[in-house]
Amino acid sequence: MSHDASHEHEHDHDHDHEGSVLPEMDLRVRALESLLIEKGYVEPKALDVLMDTYEHKVGPRNGARVVAKAWRDAAFRQWLLDDATAAIASLGFTGRQGEHMVALENTPGVHNMVVCTLCSCYPWPVLGLPPIWYKSAPYRSRAVIDPRGVLAEFGVALPDGTEIRVWDSTAEVRYLVLPMRPANTEALGEDELAVLVTRDSMIGTGLALAPNTPGSASGGQP
Fold first, then answer.
1. Potential cystine with 196: which of 38, 114, 150, 209 (Cβ 3.0-4.6 Å)?
2. Alpha-carbon dihedral of residues 103, 108, 109, 113, nearest 10 degrees?
3. Can you give the pLDDT at residue 145?
4. Catalytic residue among 6, 20, 119, 201
5. Of the residues 2, 6, 121, 136, which is catalytic?
6. Topology (CATH) of 16-203
Protein backbone atom coordinates (compact mmCIF):
# COMPACT_ATOMS: atom_id res chain seq x y z
CA MET A 1 0.00 0.00 0.00
CA SER A 2 1.15 3.54 -0.66
CA HIS A 3 -0.09 5.24 2.50
CA ASP A 4 1.83 5.34 5.77
CA ALA A 5 -0.05 2.70 7.71
CA SER A 6 -1.37 -0.43 6.06
CA HIS A 7 -3.44 -2.42 8.53
CA GLU A 8 -2.80 -5.94 7.31
CA HIS A 9 -5.44 -8.62 7.79
CA GLU A 10 -3.91 -11.76 6.32
CA HIS A 11 -5.93 -13.83 8.82
CA ASP A 12 -9.34 -13.45 10.41
CA HIS A 13 -9.17 -11.71 13.75
CA ASP A 14 -12.03 -13.67 15.30
CA HIS A 15 -10.95 -13.65 18.93
CA ASP A 16 -12.07 -11.29 21.64
CA HIS A 17 -10.71 -10.23 24.99
CA GLU A 18 -12.54 -12.97 26.87
CA GLY A 19 -11.77 -15.72 24.39
CA SER A 20 -8.06 -15.11 23.97
CA VAL A 21 -5.60 -17.54 25.53
CA LEU A 22 -3.43 -14.72 26.79
CA PRO A 23 -5.97 -13.09 29.12
CA GLU A 24 -6.77 -16.58 30.45
CA MET A 25 -3.07 -17.06 31.12
CA ASP A 26 -2.95 -13.66 32.82
CA LEU A 27 -5.71 -14.74 35.18
CA ARG A 28 -3.86 -17.93 36.05
CA VAL A 29 -0.64 -16.05 36.70
CA ARG A 30 -2.40 -13.55 38.93
CA ALA A 31 -4.07 -16.35 40.87
CA LEU A 32 -0.73 -18.06 41.36
CA GLU A 33 0.89 -14.80 42.44
CA SER A 34 -1.84 -14.23 45.04
CA LEU A 35 -1.52 -17.77 46.37
CA LEU A 36 2.28 -17.58 46.67
CA ILE A 37 2.11 -14.25 48.47
CA GLU A 38 -0.76 -15.36 50.73
CA LYS A 39 1.13 -18.51 51.78
CA GLY A 40 4.26 -16.49 52.43
CA TYR A 41 6.30 -18.42 49.87
CA VAL A 42 7.49 -15.30 48.10
CA GLU A 43 7.78 -11.61 48.84
CA PRO A 44 5.84 -9.27 46.55
CA LYS A 45 9.00 -7.27 45.75
CA ALA A 46 10.91 -10.44 44.85
CA LEU A 47 8.08 -11.51 42.57
CA ASP A 48 8.12 -8.11 40.87
CA VAL A 49 11.85 -8.46 40.23
CA LEU A 50 11.33 -11.96 38.80
CA MET A 51 8.57 -10.82 36.45
CA ASP A 52 10.59 -7.79 35.36
CA THR A 53 13.61 -9.99 34.66
CA TYR A 54 11.62 -12.37 32.48
CA GLU A 55 9.88 -9.56 30.63
CA HIS A 56 12.96 -7.46 29.89
CA LYS A 57 15.93 -9.82 29.96
CA VAL A 58 15.31 -13.57 29.76
CA GLY A 59 12.39 -13.71 27.34
CA PRO A 60 13.61 -11.41 24.54
CA ARG A 61 16.97 -13.20 24.39
CA ASN A 62 15.32 -16.02 22.45
CA GLY A 63 14.10 -13.64 19.77
CA ALA A 64 17.46 -11.88 19.74
CA ARG A 65 19.14 -15.18 18.93
CA VAL A 66 16.71 -15.76 16.07
CA VAL A 67 17.39 -12.31 14.63
CA ALA A 68 21.16 -12.58 15.04
CA LYS A 69 21.21 -15.91 13.23
CA ALA A 70 19.10 -14.48 10.42
CA TRP A 71 21.53 -11.57 10.07
CA ARG A 72 24.49 -13.93 9.77
CA ASP A 73 22.97 -16.84 7.87
CA ALA A 74 21.24 -16.01 4.57
CA ALA A 75 19.71 -19.48 4.27
CA PHE A 76 18.23 -19.29 7.77
CA ARG A 77 16.95 -15.77 7.07
CA GLN A 78 15.08 -17.00 4.01
CA TRP A 79 13.71 -19.97 5.96
CA LEU A 80 12.55 -17.59 8.68
CA LEU A 81 10.71 -15.44 6.15
CA ASP A 82 9.20 -18.49 4.40
CA ASP A 83 8.26 -20.51 7.50
CA ALA A 84 8.97 -18.68 10.72
CA THR A 85 7.37 -21.33 12.93
CA ALA A 86 9.70 -24.07 11.70
CA ALA A 87 12.81 -21.87 11.60
CA ILE A 88 12.25 -20.64 15.15
CA ALA A 89 11.47 -24.15 16.38
CA SER A 90 14.79 -25.37 14.94
CA LEU A 91 16.49 -23.26 17.61
CA GLY A 92 14.38 -24.83 20.35
CA PHE A 93 11.93 -21.97 20.85
CA THR A 94 8.46 -23.47 20.83
CA GLY A 95 5.36 -23.51 22.98
CA ARG A 96 1.99 -21.89 23.50
CA GLN A 97 1.62 -18.45 21.97
CA GLY A 98 4.21 -19.39 19.36
CA GLU A 99 2.57 -22.15 17.35
CA HIS A 100 2.00 -20.04 14.22
CA MET A 101 4.68 -17.42 13.71
CA VAL A 102 5.26 -15.01 10.81
CA ALA A 103 8.47 -13.03 10.39
CA LEU A 104 8.28 -9.49 9.00
CA GLU A 105 11.47 -8.02 7.53
CA ASN A 106 12.22 -4.33 7.90
CA THR A 107 13.97 -2.65 4.99
CA PRO A 108 15.01 0.94 4.19
CA GLY A 109 11.65 1.39 2.45
CA VAL A 110 9.33 -0.59 4.75
CA HIS A 111 9.01 -0.59 8.54
CA ASN A 112 6.79 -3.20 10.19
CA MET A 113 5.05 -2.71 13.51
CA VAL A 114 2.96 -5.21 15.49
CA VAL A 115 -0.12 -4.64 17.64
CA CYS A 116 -3.04 -6.68 18.90
CA THR A 117 -6.05 -4.40 18.59
CA LEU A 118 -8.55 -6.53 20.50
CA CYS A 119 -6.50 -7.89 23.40
CA SER A 120 -2.79 -8.65 23.78
CA CYS A 121 -1.70 -11.61 21.66
CA TYR A 122 2.07 -11.84 21.88
CA PRO A 123 4.79 -14.37 20.89
CA TRP A 124 5.85 -15.58 24.34
CA PRO A 125 8.44 -18.20 23.20
CA VAL A 126 10.58 -15.55 21.49
CA LEU A 127 9.78 -12.34 23.39
CA GLY A 128 8.83 -13.46 26.89
CA LEU A 129 6.11 -11.55 28.74
CA PRO A 130 4.38 -8.69 26.92
CA PRO A 131 5.23 -5.21 28.20
CA ILE A 132 2.47 -3.31 29.95
CA TRP A 133 2.26 -0.68 27.22
CA TYR A 134 1.64 -3.37 24.56
CA LYS A 135 -1.56 -4.36 26.37
CA SER A 136 -2.74 -0.80 26.94
CA ALA A 137 -5.75 0.59 25.09
CA PRO A 138 -3.92 3.73 23.87
CA TYR A 139 -1.22 1.69 22.13
CA ARG A 140 -3.69 -0.78 20.67
CA SER A 141 -5.74 2.01 19.10
CA ARG A 142 -3.11 4.62 18.23
CA ALA A 143 -0.71 2.12 16.63
CA VAL A 144 -3.29 1.74 13.86
CA ILE A 145 -4.49 5.33 13.66
CA ASP A 146 -1.15 7.13 14.04
CA PRO A 147 1.75 4.67 13.82
CA ARG A 148 4.28 7.35 12.92
CA GLY A 149 3.30 9.36 15.97
CA VAL A 150 3.54 6.31 18.23
CA LEU A 151 6.99 5.51 16.86
CA ALA A 152 8.08 9.08 17.54
CA GLU A 153 7.08 8.65 21.18
CA PHE A 154 9.34 5.60 21.31
CA GLY A 155 12.15 7.72 19.90
CA VAL A 156 11.97 6.26 16.38
CA ALA A 157 12.03 8.84 13.58
CA LEU A 158 11.72 7.31 10.13
CA PRO A 159 12.22 9.05 6.78
CA ASP A 160 9.02 10.45 5.29
CA GLY A 161 9.26 8.02 2.40
CA THR A 162 9.34 4.93 4.60
CA GLU A 163 6.11 2.94 4.45
CA ILE A 164 4.84 1.80 7.84
CA ARG A 165 2.91 -1.47 7.87
CA VAL A 166 0.88 -2.26 10.97
CA TRP A 167 0.14 -5.95 11.55
CA ASP A 168 -2.68 -7.10 13.80
CA SER A 169 -1.62 -10.10 15.87
CA THR A 170 -4.32 -12.69 16.49
CA ALA A 171 -4.96 -15.81 18.54
CA GLU A 172 -3.95 -17.80 15.46
CA VAL A 173 -0.95 -15.82 14.16
CA ARG A 174 1.79 -13.94 15.96
CA TYR A 175 4.53 -11.85 14.42
CA LEU A 176 8.25 -11.31 14.91
CA VAL A 177 9.82 -8.26 13.29
CA LEU A 178 13.25 -8.84 11.76
CA PRO A 179 14.88 -5.43 12.26
CA MET A 180 17.48 -4.05 9.89
CA ARG A 181 21.02 -5.03 10.77
CA PRO A 182 23.04 -2.07 12.09
CA ALA A 183 25.90 -0.78 9.99
CA ASN A 184 29.49 -1.75 10.72
CA THR A 185 28.61 -5.13 12.23
CA GLU A 186 30.03 -7.37 9.51
CA ALA A 187 32.79 -8.70 11.78
CA LEU A 188 30.48 -9.50 14.71
CA GLY A 189 29.45 -13.04 15.63
CA GLU A 190 25.95 -14.12 16.55
CA ASP A 191 26.44 -13.58 20.29
CA GLU A 192 27.69 -10.05 19.71
CA LEU A 193 24.88 -9.31 17.27
CA ALA A 194 22.22 -10.64 19.65
CA VAL A 195 23.19 -7.96 22.19
CA LEU A 196 22.17 -5.33 19.64
CA VAL A 197 18.66 -6.73 19.22
CA THR A 198 16.15 -5.00 21.48
CA ARG A 199 12.75 -6.32 22.45
CA ASP A 200 11.09 -3.27 20.92
CA SER A 201 12.95 -3.74 17.63
CA MET A 202 11.27 -7.17 17.36
CA ILE A 203 7.85 -5.57 17.91
CA GLY A 204 8.62 -2.73 15.53
CA THR A 205 8.48 0.07 18.08
CA GLY A 206 12.26 0.33 18.18
CA LEU A 207 15.41 -0.19 16.16
CA ALA A 208 18.38 -2.46 16.70
CA LEU A 209 21.21 -0.85 18.65
CA ALA A 210 24.33 0.44 16.96
CA PRO A 211 27.60 -1.25 17.99
CA ASN A 212 29.03 -0.01 21.29
CA THR A 213 25.67 1.43 22.31
CA PRO A 214 24.79 0.81 25.97
CA GLY A 215 21.86 -1.59 26.19
CA SER A 216 20.87 -5.21 25.96
CA ALA A 217 18.30 -7.49 24.38
CA SER A 218 15.71 -6.11 26.78
CA GLY A 219 15.60 -2.72 25.09
CA GLY A 220 12.53 -0.61 24.91
CA GLN A 221 10.38 1.74 26.80
CA PRO A 222 9.47 0.94 30.42
1. 209
2. 40
3. 96
4. 119
5. 121
6. Nitrile Hydratase; Chain A (3.90.330)
